[in-house]
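Homework help board

Subject: predicted structure for assignment chain

Our instructor gave us this sequence and asked us to write out the predicted structure in token form, then describe one feature. I got the tokens but I'm not sure how to describe them. Can anyone check?
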Amino acid sequence: MRVVVIAGSPRKNARTSAMMKYVYEYAKSKNTDTKLIDLSEGQIECFHGFDVDYNEATKSAARDILEADVWLVGTPIYNSFFSSALKNLFEYIDYKKTAGKAAGMAIVAAGNIGFTDVQTLLTQLMSYFRVVANPKAVYMTTNEISSTTVSDPGAQARLKEMVDDTLELASKIT
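My token output:
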């Protein structure tokens, strides 16, 4: 099974990146064919259509997403929405080639507001791609994440459970 972990924040030193690096390390311990796409590295180009020649990082990210059986997606909440950088990344993906995959979600915000709204939007995006979403998303606040890692043991446990449940879901549908 192929797994891709997506850190959906374009900000440098993003808490979303720290959260999803934790997810990546745990997922990699469960499944060696696991890759990380971190949008804070700034290598993914803005989508301008399918007839444009994009840089290798952009093409590689799109290929990794298409080839993966499992998507573990993390996003911050920006203006009551998931990040536009994450939306941009999914512009490269052909929805006709993604049916039957599984996705898990982790959402981070400064406070306890808007989580279910963003989960609903992400679930709708997954539905568009015909990807089965794990209904149990992880909600985290920034105080559970240091600048480099997930520091809260309860948050760590929730992230591990999301990975385990999503991998199990994928094994049932693929």
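Reply (TA_rk): Your tokens look well-formed. For the description, you could write something like this. The chain has one domain: 3-173. That's the kind of observation they're looking for.
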